[in-house]
Amino acid sequence: xxxxxxxxxxxxxxxxxxxxxxxxxxxxxxxxxxxxxxxxxxxxxxxxxxxxxxxxxxxxxxxxxxxxxxxxxxxxxxxxxxxxxxxxxxxxxxxxxxxxxxxxxxxxxxxxxxxxxxxxxxxxxxxxxxxxxxxxxxxxxxxxxxxxxxxxxxxxxxxxxxxxxxxxxxxxxxxxxxxxxxxxxxxxxxxxxxxxxxxxxxxxxxx
Length: 207
Prior knowledge:
InterPro entries: Anti_sigma_zinc_sf, Znf_put. The protein has helices spanning 6-17, 23-35, 37-55, 58-72, 79-88, 90-110, 187-206, and strands at residues 117-119, 127-129, 132-135, 140-142, 145-148, 151-154, 157-159, 162-165, 168-169, 177-178, 182-185.
């Protein structure tokens, strides 16, 4: 079994925190984290952030965050206006702190290289040209195919799911056939938006 690439590991961290990994995928991620200090530190930071958001009681958390925001604000000639606004919008204040914490984790994630990564059980029939991954016409690729930081062009058959992370899927040719799901992921947008949307949904449900 091939070692997990750091780029793929970062996506797996997010899926693991969301409870979307299988036992085998969790085992692969744990093996990678045990041998990669950089990914391990990143995972710990994401795990702490997730735990903080999930564990905080909603109403008390909003009041506490409001107080902490007020204490961190610089001196102003009209402090009463700021206090009034924050108290009227506790959910927005909480979301602002949440986004700052999330963005800090992305800074370290984007500091790693943007090299192309191609993973799957059947790569013998896949052609790689620079940062372009091609499934040639007349060829059949078995199993799932995951491409990170590259463009994907499918001309033949893919008997599995196709996942494109931080890349582009070139419109499928008339000869192309993909048996499974097609998923494109922009980690800096889709994942952050998903987390923020989930956070607001939790606040709404608890109100």
